[in-house]
Write a structure and sequence with these properties.
This protein is of the alpha+beta class. The protein is globular, with a radius of gyration of 18 Å. It is built from eight helices and ten strands. The chain has one domain: q2cbj1_9rhob like domain (Jelly Rolls), CATH 2.60.120. The strands form two sheets. A seven-stranded antiparallel beta sheet has the order 1-8-5-10-4-3-2. A three-stranded antiparallel beta sheet has the order 7-6-9. The structure holds 2-oxoglutaric acid and fe (ii) ion (FE2).
């Protein structure tokens, strides 16, 4: 790994989840924080096996426990050309613990200076090589800043398509304004066969900010907390790549009910195009 990338990782690393004040500070400054060894390798392996039972079935399935499997949910956008199992807390006690982790809830509350916050979606994702590259640089929605926690269940090398983040962009309201009102929707990696998306960025739009682009090459058990108002993306897995993660989606409210999506990509389209038409 390049020294530059390692230096960026080090900048946003806090070594224990109990250091909630330090983590909140790091989040406020950079928009992202990495916590190594959040859970043990043994737990990661157990969880991964439980998830595989549901992800590796042939067709999308609604399970009796309340979880459900979906493949390639946003077709032709590259946004999720992967296997997913929603609401993994339905079958795993370890993941229920992760979902209701008080440390992360505290960080969330302090990060936004209001609260309480809780998880409304917990999803397992398995990323492998796919003809369609994964969705490149984006923010999740213009609407509001959202908070996510991504847990690596497997060691993630550059080939496995690590999560990545453009450090500091969470505070860049001007960048979001330009995207929304000047630059307009873009295709992932500018590939003409993909649909343009209002909240996607291309490299030219990010320019010098890209020197702060960190790729989270890290061991299983690593937790990454991030504000999705900052520019981020997963990288596309190489032919041999395989990445297993669990993601918690946080929203304001205590003990939120399970919901289907963290945000509504259609709402972004509507909002964008209605504004456009009014002009
Ligand atoms: O898969 C990744 O690393 C990025 C995921 C992402 O964009 C998100 O969860 O908002
Ligand atoms: Fe995202």
């Amino acid at each position: 790994m390049s020294n530059h990338n390692q230096n960026l990782i080090d900048k946003v690393t806090i070594n224990s989840i109990v250091n909630t004040d330090k983590i909140t500070k790091t989040m406020k400054k950079y928009g992202v924080c990495l916590i190594p060894n959040y859970i043990s390798d043994e737990k990661c392996n157990t969880i991964q096996k439980e998830c595989a039972k549901r992800s590796e079935v042939k067709v999308d399935t609604n399970f009796k426990d309340g979880s459900y499997r979906r493949y390639d949910v946003y077709k032709n956008t590259g946004a999720a050309a992967n296997k997913r199992v929603y609401h993994t807390d339905c079958f795993s006690n370890d993941l229920m613990e992760f979902k209701i982790d008080k440390h992360i809830q505290t960080i969330c509350k302090d990060y936004y200076d209001k609260g309480p916050y809780s998880v409304h979606v917990q999803v397992y994702e398995r990323h492998q090589f796919h003809q369609i590259p994964v969705r490149s640089f984006h923010i999740d929605t213009f609407e509001t800043s959202t908070f996510k926690a991504m847990l690596y269940l497997s060691d993630v090398t550059i080939e496995d398509g690590p999560n990545s983040y453009v450090i500091g962009t969470h505070n860049n309201a001007e960048l979001r304004r330009k995207k929304q009102f000047e630059w307009g929707p873009k295709r992932s990696e500018n590939l003409e066969y993909l649909e343009p998306h209002p909240t996607n960025f291309i490299e030219e739009e990010l320019g010098p900010l890209l020197k702060n682009w960190v790729k989270f090459i890290a061991k299983k058990g690593t937790l990454i907390l991030f504000d999705t108002w900052g520019v981020h993306c997963g990288l596309s897995p190489a032919k041999k790549g395989d990445r297993h993660v669990i993601v918690n989606y946080y929203r304001p409210g205590e003990n939120l009910p399970r919901s289907d999506f963290g945000f509504d990509p259609k709402a972004d389209y509507k909002k964008y195009f209605s504004k456009y038409e009014k002009k």
